[in-house]
Amino acid sequence: MLRTYHGSCHCGAVTFEADLDLAAGTGRCNCSICTKRRAWGVNIKPDAFRLIQGQEALSDYQFGTLSLHHRFCTTCGCAPFGAGHVEAIGGDFVSIAVNCLDDVTPEELASVPVHYSNGRDNRWFEPPAITSYL
């Protein structure tokens, strides 16, 4: 069910809202940055995302193919969302960090489907052999 969620970085300098259907699924990946950040995200179209405050507090990190802007708060270092363009997943997107949603309940999080991606081996549409650490 589509619902508007509110999210933020740790210090609250960056806040946003996003129209999400968490029951449609989320993702975890074993690529280098996702593993180190223990990233858990949900991708949405840009028009379903609204930055409420904190544009000036955000910094940007890119690597590899430069297809994703990894946004993070310059005060607390938290990465509440990123944005990019990958044709294979439908073009422009915003990736919301599920763990940065402020009004999601533990019960909702426990029931959210998770798709695992093997980014470490560039097999993005296949799960890795081991997922328990992600």
The share of residues in helices is under 10%
Oligomer: single chain
Which series of helices and strands comes N to C?
EEEHEEEEEEHE
Distance between the termini: 26 Å
User: Strand order, biggest sheet?
Assistant: 4-9-8-7-6
The major β-sheet equals: 5 strands, antiparallel
List the total number of helices. 2
Average residue-wise pLDDT = 95
Poorly predicted runs: none
Spell out the key features of this protein.
9% helix; 134 residues; mainly beta; 3-stranded antiparallel β-sheet; 39% strand; 10 strands; 5-stranded antiparallel β-sheet; 2 helices
Summarize the structure.
With 134 residues, this protein is mainly β.
Overview of the structural elements:
This protein is mostly beta strands. Helices cover 9% and strands 39% of the residues. The chain is built from 2 helices and 10 strands, in the order βββαββββββαβ. A 5-stranded antiparallel sheet has the order 4-9-8-7-6, with no helix packed on it.
Set out the fold topology.
Blueprint: E1 3-8, E2 15-20, E3 26-29, H1 32-37, E4 41-44, E5 49-53, E6 58-61, E7 68-73, E8 81-86, E9 91-97, H2 106-111, E10 114-117
Parallel strand pairs: 3-10
Antiparallel strand pairs: 1-2, 2-5, 4-9, 6-7, 7-8, 8-9
